[in-house]
Amino acid sequence: MSQQNLKKLTILALVLALASNLYIYTYPSLFPCRCSFEQQNALQGLDDNSTLAQRVWCRSQYYFSDVTKQLGSTHTRAATPEQGAVPEVRLLAIGDPQINGIWPTTPYLRRLEIFINDYFLGHVIQRMLRRLAPTHVAVMGDLFSSQWIGDSEYYNRTMRYTRRLLGRSDKLLQAQRDESHDAAGEYNRDWQQYGRDYEAVRQGDLTMFSWHRENAWRWAPEDDYLLINITGNHDVGYSGDTTYQHMARYKHLFGEDNYWIEYDRDTDHAWRVVVLNDLLLEGPALQPEFIDTTWRFLEHLAARDFPGTTVLLTHVPFHKPAGLCHDNPETRYYPPGYEREPYKVGLLRSQNLLSPDVSDRVLNLVFANGKPGIILTGHDHEGCDTAYTRAPDGSWAAQPPSAQPAHVRELTVRSVMAQYGGNVGLLRGSFDPATASWRWTYSVCPFAHQAVWYCAKLMPVVLILLLSTLYVW
């Protein structure tokens, strides 16, 4: 290669390195309407008649203004509201990260890909945490890629999730391993003891399940936000697969799978978060007692007679007709003659959506007070936006959100995985004193295809090699 061509290649590598790195660190500023909780419908100064030059100029102004603002901001904790003001709800929703595992037989190239993917996900999540300072962060289930892993690997992925994706301290996890490990020092949860304790509570005082919480904005004083993990089918399995082992380790490392948090109950601006493990709502189930407990949780929830607005967080979306979202209704059961695990024949194997009857029952129990509400779900990696309205007979109909005013809006969070573009969802709730009601807005902030991430990380290395070669030349 001639020196002139080498110079051109070096310049190209320099441009790609600068452009890709500038993008991955400032990309939210390119989408100010979608990547901020303010969530404007459009950029001010632009309309349908704006010329291309006007659009470029306006977007450039917004971009540089937003970048300057972010450079001067270092806070990751939500600002304290003015005295007497109702705090805004600023929830960052993360859909289905599905962290993969590494085994002794895993090829080295695949190991490198998994390592890089962890930091891809971590970059997206931590960038948005610093930018947004959310009050709540909800991970919509499927934290891991498979529920068919041992306790030690489950723990290892939890450590990676905590360190690499969320950038949080792992001191609590280390303490949990110290109290639950085998002779080799590897994490191991006593699921049999968990089963005995679970059954004792189920037959006695159900309040021992710790379903009720009030005004929780952080789990610990040092936290910057309230982290909520939702059970996904790859975390604990569908009801035909879920065992005491699955639930014992999940609850030990991530907390309860069903609970509610009531905020400002005895005020005109009361609202609540309901976290629901909807994988254990219908069967046939391997452990039917899990389904019984979940329905008893919902009955206790409805008996609270809560007067405010509800935000429901769960994994599997509610029933809707085919064509409304990417995932159509589909439920599968273990077939006759299933030789691998014959005891599962006839049990629930998978479901894209909840069944119509279960959907109606849950919606009537959670939104029993008639107030409009929000549902956030995962599972469908493409994401979706659906409106639900209640008929006089108690049934619910799903339709596009623009069809008519909805009683409940279901927002399926598009996946944060690289192949889907590294998306996160932004849900903002603000209370309007004039109407004594909550107003909710939602947007999806996209990152980029993983090729951009690879380019940003590899091009500086290529550039250094080219510069070294050019210098030697």
Textual characterization of the structure:
The protein has a domain at 141-412. Strands 3-5-6-7-10-13-11-12 form an 8-stranded mixed beta sheet. The longest helix is centred in the N-terminal third of the chain and has 25 residues, at 108-132. The model has no long low-confidence stretch (mean pLDDT 92). The N and C termini lie close together (11 Å). It has helices at 3-26, 52-71, 108-132, 151-165, 171-179, 191-203, 233-236, 244-254, 288-303, 356-366, 450-472; strands at 89-94, 136-139, 212-214, 226-229, 259-263, 271-275, 309-313, 331-333, 348-351, 373-377, 384-390, 396-399, 408-412, 424-432, 437-445. With 473 residues, it is of the alpha/beta class. It is built from 11 helices and 15 strands.
Outline:
With 473 residues, the protein is of the alpha/beta class.
Radius of gyration: 24 Å
**Measured distance between first and last alpha carbons:** 11 Å
Which geometry do the CA atoms define?
globular
Order of helices and strands: HHEHEHHHEEHHEEHEEEHEEEEEEH
Number of helices: 11
**Order of neighbouring strands in the sheet with most strands:** 3-5-6-7-10-13-11-12
